[in-house]
Amino acid sequence: VTVSFKVAPQFTGIPTGSATVTASTGESCTGALSAGVGSCALKFVTGGSRMLTAVYSGDSNFITSTSAAATQVVSGISLSTTSLLFGNQLVGTTSATQQVTLANVGTTTLTINSIQWSANFSDSNNCNGSLRPGASCRINVRFVPTTTGVLTGTLTITDSDVTSPQVVTLTGTGVAPVLSLSVNVLPFGNQAVNTTSASQTVLVSNTGTAPLIINNIALNGANPNQFTQNNNCPGTLAVGASCTVNVAFRPRSRGNKSANLNVNVAAPATSKSVALTGTGI
After folding, report:
1. Model pTM greater than 0.85?
2. Architecture label for domain 77-175
């Protein structure tokens, strides 16, 4: 443990010399002052809570003095990180693994009671319940968002160390495409048999937060051969982008006709359709 200290004069001047820090368990270290401040490193054999006291040696202008006791909690555990950031992840999919290394830097065996994680995250590990002194294990964390937006959680390690539990904060953003259509019904009215109506346009938009994969755009229903469509939609529609589908009615016989224009997209987005109607005369 690196201990920093500062010797402040009662009035004016800059103290020189050194300070010795002693723990309630007997360990001590000494560090020289530079501009009134200094540091030294204490090495502890075991973890736990200690009281630390600093004694200033004094110099030609300042007398020796002793600090009030301060509490220092010494951990036998080292974590490679205390936070993980996963960035954007498509809802319903699993991110790449990020690792947390848990190391026993103490001198006694560490008992690991539990490793738990929050919703929208998952974990696997090779910690096996305990770590001998000097040993380490890996905790593999993944982000599995179930909804959109910024999602936070924790990885919590409960063990026999005095600083238990150790907590790693987890953050990621769930993203998903959203298919939006400008209309859900296109009525064409009366149209002479074997003639083609003026086109009507359906605007296809991605109003979500991830690219939208368009599998296909097709006509089906009762009379799909009485309607035509053409479009300029790409296989993947970027966030905020739009494309158009032009639909026309060409009745082959008299009477009421109907069909559906289906825009079929990949999950987690939802496919949608537009109802088409017209009458051949």
Report:
1. no
2. Sandwich (2.60)
